Amino acid sequence: MSTSTAIAGPVPGPARDQRIARSLGRRRHRADLVVKVLCILATVIGLALLASILATLIARGGGSLSLAIFTNMTRPPGSNGGLLNAIVGTLIQTGIGTLIGTPIGLMVGTYLAEYGRNSAIANTVRFVSDVLLSAPSILIGLFIYELCVVPFGGFSGIAGCLALAVIVIPIVVRTTEDMLQLIPASLREAVMALGAPKWKMIVLICYRAAKDGIVTGILLAVARIAGETAPLLFTSLGNLNWSVDLTQPMASLPVTIYQYAGSAFEDWVDHAWVGALLITIGVLATNVVARLALRGRR
Amino acid sequence: MRSAPPGRRRCRERSKQVIATIEHGRAGRRVSIGDPIFAGLATGSGIFVLVLLGSIILSLFLGGLPAFRQFGINFLTSAEWDPVHHVFGAGVSIYGTLLTSLLAVLFAVPLAFGIAFYLTEMAPAWLRRPVGTAIELLAAVPSIIYGMWGFFVIVPIMSQYIQPTVIDTFDGVPVLEDLFGGPPFGTGLFTAAVILAIMIIPFIAATMRDVFDTVPAVYKESAYGVGCTTWEVMRSIVLPYTRVSVVGGIMLGLGRALGETMAVTFVIGNADRISASVFSSGNTIASIVALEFPESPQGSLKLASLLALGFILFVISFIVLAISRYLLRPRLKA
Predict the structure, then answer these.
(1) What is the pLDDT of residues A262-291, one digit of tens each?
(2) Distance from CA of A82 to the nearest CA of B (A)
(3) DSSP assigned state of A48
(4) I need a labelling partner for A57 at 20 to 30 A (CA). Which of A219, B55, B241, B329 fits?
(5) What digits encode the pLDDT tens for the residues A188-225?
(6) Is B298 helix (H, G, I), strand (E, B) or coil?
(7) Is B12 touching A (CB cutoff 8 A)?
(8) Could you give the C-alpha distances from B59 to A133, B102, B312, in angstroms and in order?
(9) Min Cα–Cα distance to chain B from A270, Å
(10) What ipTM goes with this model?
(11) How many CB pairs under 8 A join A and B?
(12) Do B49 and A128 touch (CB under 8 A)?
């Protein structure tokens, strides 16, 4: 890349031109160096931010991490409470939300890749799905509030599940469509040539070939909704008591963290940090696993 | 895919015709019940997504209708938010939302560009994946974690070091004195913008990296061949080639910042007025909805005003995200 040494030899021409050329070259390489240093600095800052977040979580939450967190319910301040109901609530709502959202997202992705392709409707669906992917999650909470909470007369766990399901759909759509499009046409043609109906080709061959990618999408969706707070504020509301009844308000880790972190009680704030540590480890670990699953494929 | 040689394309067309013939023949012999059901399910799901978006818009609009009726078009500009006298306006929240998001983009773009530049042109191959993954993990950290981290780590830094220094520096300078004035609480619009910037860096950086990678190697190699430095290749070849998509990536980050809720709620200070200083407290549409919702009984004008704010936020983000999609579409699809 560096060509300045090659020019430094005896080049014909007036000495003044050579001097100008050399100083110009020096200036160009200096600008290059400055930009490169700034870019490395930007990357280091990015990595340092991640490190700072993790270090803060471990420093503040690691100390209060104990077995009681996993065995006790949330209790009034100062009475050795835990986060069990919040953890279970998050698992239930994330699980059901994923179970509802995944089949729909899978079918939409299938429609886009196998049926609609570049038709006007498919392009509209693709666009709308992409917009929903980045749409503010708080608005999805308000939507489910209007749709499920107001008509049925109260906050409920199932409303939280539905809000999370709406967030899952566009994530699964994107990965499913991308993965199905990577499957070579020859594979499809081979299946068709054997006389299989199209739906069997998609379910038995395409899904199987795209399995890793689709699973990655589902895992990413799980990781995303497990940490969602805003939509749950208006749907499952949070619950400081034990409840696995889907028709009642249900606790969740993020909402409990939100309630605890804003409180004035020291042990509640400590528990908020423990909850934050747990949710972050869960979310980041799921992300890493999802990426590793995909790496084997590409 | 698009640039397949005409021979192969013709071949593909032909095989499609063959498949169609086979399908037709089979349909004639034996009616397959599975195909129409599956196709119906898939198409129905596609339509469902459209219905979903329609219902979200409609429900927010209908929920906010009482507020729009009561206050009319003034709702958009009125800076009054007075729950006691039942007077509500969106002005402060819209101002806070736009200001924090635009500032966030301003802060995030240089860093995101640096990261994308490093990852595509400078990093050794063995470092690219781990560093890239680490930056992507930054996007996976839940919003509420950013809120807590911002409140307990960034806010003290702001109130003890950055804000007093800046306020002292500009003390006595006209205009800037007001823009960076006020007591150094640490919370406020500026801090919210900083947190938002950190949250959208990974989205912008990832998009930039992906579009930088689409530049044909021949172009870059030619530039290197005539003696360009890495920065010159970036500035004169890569950036002009990917300009539209880079703007699309930035718009994507802006769209994300507009609706971010929990992180902003923690650090913005929640005040119902507009001040000249960027260090002052304020609110955004998302933060006021999250904070005021528990105190808004069903059927009240306040709840309707919050839903109306939600509708406005949806319209703003929809426009920004739609532009982003439009700009990114040709590059990332090809």
Answers:
(1) 888 888 999 999 999 999 999 999 999 998
(2) 19
(3) H
(4) A219
(5) 999 989 988 899 999 999 999 999 899 999 999 999 99
(6) coil
(7) yes
(8) 19, 28, 12
(9) 12
(10) 0.90
(11) 270
(12) yes
Q: Could you say which of A138, A146, A189 has the minimum Cβ distance to residue B286?
A: A138
Sequence-distant (6+) residues with CB within 8 A of A52 are B149, B153
* SS3 state at A237: strand
DSSP lists the bridge partners of residue A253 as none
Q: Residue B82: which H helix or E strand, with range?
A: strand B81-82
Q: Which residue has the tokens 């069990």?
A: A84
> How many Å separate Cα B216 from the centre of its chain?
28
Cβ count near A295 (within 10 Å): 12
For residue B79, CA distances in Å to B90, B93, B281 come to 6, 8, 14
User: pTM to 2 decimals?
Assistant: 0.89
Distances (CA, A) of A235 to A29, A138, A252: 58, 11, 11
Q: Specify the pLDDT at position B37.
A: 92
The answer to whether A188 and A148 have CB atoms below 8 angstroms apart is no
Identify the closest residue of chain A to B197 by CA–CA distance: A46
**A106's tokens:** 């899978």
pLDDT at B183 over 70: yes
Amino acid at residue number B72? G
Residues A63-76, buried b or exposed e (16+ Cβ, 10 A)? ebbeeebeebebbe
Q: Is B4 on the interface with A (CB under 8 A)?
A: no
Beta bridge partners of A250: A237
- Are B122 and A202 inside 8 Å of each other by CB? no
User: Using CB atoms, which residue from B15, B136, B230 is nearest to A32?
Assistant: B230
Task: Pinpoint the alpha helices (H) of chain B.
Answer: 6-29, 34-71, 74-77, 91-117, 125-140, 143-149, 155-157, 163-169, 176-179, 189-212, 217-225, 230-233, 239-259, 262-267, 285-292, 301-333
pLDDT at A76 exceeding the cut of 90: no
Alpha-carbon distance B110 to B98, whole Å?
Answer: 19
Return the H-helix or E-strand segment holding A168: helix A157-182
Cα–Cα distances in angstroms (integers) from residue B290 to residues A275, B227, B265, B328, in the given order: 20, 55, 8, 31
What single string gives the DSSP state of each residue in B18-79?
Answer: HHHHHHHHHHHHS--SHHHHHHHHHHHHHHHHHHHHHHHHHHHHHHHHHHHHHHTTHHHH--
Query: Residue with structure tokens 């619950």?
Result: A239
Q: Dihedral sign, CA of A256, A258, A259, A262?
A: positive
Q: Give the residue ranges of DSSP H helices in A62-156.
A: 67-71, 84-110, 120-134, 137-144
B291 close contact with A: CB closer than 8 A: no
CB contact under 8 A, A131 and B321: yes
Contact call for residues B137 and B203 (beta carbons, < 8 A) = no
Q: What is the mean pLDDT of residues A67-89?
A: 88
